[in-house]
């Protein structure tokens, strides 16, 4: 059974930093790209970042490029999202998601973790 | 960054069919597979359709997807109260070099 468990969320002030983690199990982790998708309160889903299975390729939405860094540790079956220079508009539930069939679109999602940026 | 356009809402009575459209571009839907997700209130998204028209195991055949050119559609037949949810389309976009997710459609069962 695929399981994705996010951690590391919380309340942070504007300009601050936070690192999210997502621990995966139930599949061959290194064989799949992984993504972070976020959802602001009352809004739709927004893709934030993706990373290939071996970590060699990373992709970012324009809204987070230069501020967020995605990485993975295949020995720990975990991906990370380092978020710097956080803004109020980064407030959202952040979901970790597993790639489905080699095109970076997802089939399994974690339960999500809340990130709140506020003074 | 969303460049997939969906109607904000759709509604129908139980037992009827509701169809949700998803309009993209040549670099997104026109060149890549379309996925559809269901998000129940307070829950994480769930995959309904992958690769335009394929259903994962466990998804009822009341849900069907199609694609034509730069647009796609999700049809829900035999509508039930438990189908009340938000629905999103998604596809890779070659120009943006990343996935794009639709604006979302809230389905209401009258």
Provide an overview of this structure:
The complex is a heterodimer of chains A (119) and B (110). Chain A is mainly β and 119 residues long. Chain A contains no helices and eleven strands. In chain A, strands 2, 4, 5, 6, 9, 10 and 11 form a seven-stranded mixed sheet that branches. Chain A has a four-stranded antiparallel sheet with strand order 1-3-8-7, with no helix packed on it. In chain A, a hairpin with a 6-residue loop joins strand 9 and strand 10. Chain A is globular. Helices cover 0% and strands 45% of the residues of chain B. Chain B contains no helices and nine strands. Chain B starts with 8 loop residues before the first strand and ends with a strand. The relative contact order of chain B is 0.34. Chains A and B meet through strand 5 and strand 10 of A and strand 3, strand 7 and strand 8 of B.
What's this model, at a glance?
The complex is a heterodimer of chains A (119) and B (110). By secondary structure, chain A is mostly beta strands. Chain A has no helices and 11 strands.
Any low-confidence stretches of chain A, pLDDT <50, length ≥5? Answer: none
The largest sheet of chain A, given as strand count, sense and whether it forms a barrel, is: 7 strands, mixed
Number of helices of chain A: 0
Number of helices of chain B: 0
Oligomer kind: heterodimer
Question: What gap, in angstroms, lies between the N and C termini of chain B?
Answer: 32 Å
Shape of chain B: globular
Listing every helix as H and every strand as E from the N terminus to the C terminus, the arrangement of chain A reads EEEEEEEEEEE
Layout: helices, strands, pairs:
The complex is a heterodimer of chains A (119) and B (110).
Chain A: E1 3-7, E2 10-12, E3 18-25, E4 34-39, E5 45-51, E6 58-60, E7 68-73, E8 78-83, E9 92-99, E10 106-109, E11 113-117
Parallel strand pairs in A: 2-11
Antiparallel strand pairs in A: 1-3, 3-8, 4-5, 4-9, 5-6, 7-8, 9-10, 9-11
Chain B: E1 9-12, E2 18-23, E3 34-39, E4 46-49, E5 63-68, E6 71-76, E7 85-93, E8 98-101, E9 105-109
Parallel strand pairs in B: 1-9
Antiparallel strand pairs in B: 2-6, 3-4, 3-7, 5-6, 7-8, 7-9
């Amino acid at each position: 059974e695929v399981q994705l468990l996010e951690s590391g969320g919380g309340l942070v002030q504007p300009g601050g930093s936070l690192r999210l983690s997502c621990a995966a199990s139930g599949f061959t982790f290194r064989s799949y790209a992984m993504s972070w998708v976020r959802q602001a309160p009352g809004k739709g889903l927004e893709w934030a970042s993706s990373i290939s299975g071996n970590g060699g390729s990373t992709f970012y939405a324009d809204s987070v490029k230069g501020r967020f860094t995605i990485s993975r540790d295949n020995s720990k079956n975990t991906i990370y999202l380092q978020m710097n220079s956080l803004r109020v508009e980064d407030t959202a539930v952040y979901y970790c998601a597993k790639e489905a069939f080699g095109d970076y679109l997802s089939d399994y999602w974690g339960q999500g973790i809340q990130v709140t940026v506020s003074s | 960054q969303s460049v997939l356009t969906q109607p904000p809402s759709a509604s129908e009575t139980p037992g009827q069919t509701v169809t949700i459209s998803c309009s993209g571009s040549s670099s997104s839907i026109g060149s890549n597979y379309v996925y559809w997700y269901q998000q129940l209130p307070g829950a994480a998204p769930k995959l309904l359709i992958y690769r335009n028209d394929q259903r994962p195991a466990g998804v009822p055949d009341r849900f069907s997807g199609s694609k034509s050119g730069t647009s796609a559609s999700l049809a829900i037949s035999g509508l039930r109260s438990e189908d009340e949810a938000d629905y999103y389309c998604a596809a890779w976009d070659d120009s943006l070099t990343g996935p794009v997710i639709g604006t979302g459609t809230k389905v209401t069962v009258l």
